Amino acid sequence: MRLLLISNVAIFLIQHYLFRGLAGTFELLALRPADVVTHLYVWQLVTYMFLHQGIGHILFNMLALWMFGTEFEQMWGTRRFLQFYFFCGVGAGLCVIVGNYLFGNPEIATVGSSGAIYGILLASAVLWPDRQMLFYFLIPLKMKYFVMIIGAIAFLNSFDPASPVSDIAHLGGMLFGYVFLKLPRMRGVDPIGSLRESYETWKLQRAKKKFQVYMRKKGSDRDRTIH
């Protein structure tokens, strides 16, 4: 998680403030469907996730990554979380390629980690649908309704060819986030149930540690009183 945050911010600073002369290099890292299909620039399916258009773009993505991704990393471990993150991000990129070839312009470049972020948000809504969060930091809203709203917005905006936002990437990230959670069921495994069980175990262990610390502190206080 920390490495993702640092690398995204560092690349943003290099791209926009420190080495603006490298604009041509960064163009090769953005996801341009025509380049992937005709020139096999397959690395763009990963590198586009580390590029961002502006302050607002990277601020929202990194804040969401920190707020919602931290819990998944604590449950799954860093390796599993990174697998999920890049599965959603690359999957969103594939959706962008297909969508631009079918309905848009394959020469238009896409940047940002929003696809992976939307995958994280979708997974949060699936696992903890009734968890309260603040919509725009003001309106209390259950996680499932929040994800429904942003998903509906992305779906409606996807019909607007003039939209500067790649809503196909958002929808694709949500789709692949859901697929990541559901696919193992075909092999007789219930990943969502396992994740919930892991989460409850983690909460129990955390509460146990706090209780042990409290008891040690109380015991120490008693010792000081006696002596």
Give me a quick take on this structure:
The protein is mainly α. Helices cover 71% and strands 4% of the residues.
Q: How many DSSP E strands? A: 2
Shape: globular
At the first level of CATH, the class of the largest domain is Mainly Alpha
Structural class: mainly alpha
Give the topology string: H per helix, E per strand.
HHHHHHHEEHHH
Q: Summarize model confidence as the mean pLDDT.
A: 84
What does this structure look like?
The chain is mainly alpha-helical. The protein folds into two domains: 2-189, Rhomboid-like fold, CATH 1.20.1540.10; 191-227. It has helices at 2-18, 23-27, 33-38, 44-47, 55-76, 78-103, 114-127, 143-157, 167-182, 191-226; strands spanning 132-135, 139-142. A two-stranded antiparallel ribbon has the order 1-2. A hairpin with a 3-residue loop joins strand 1 (132-135) and strand 2 (139-142). Helix 6 (78-103) crosses helix 9. The protein is globular and about 65 Å long. The termini are far apart. 29% of the residues are buried.
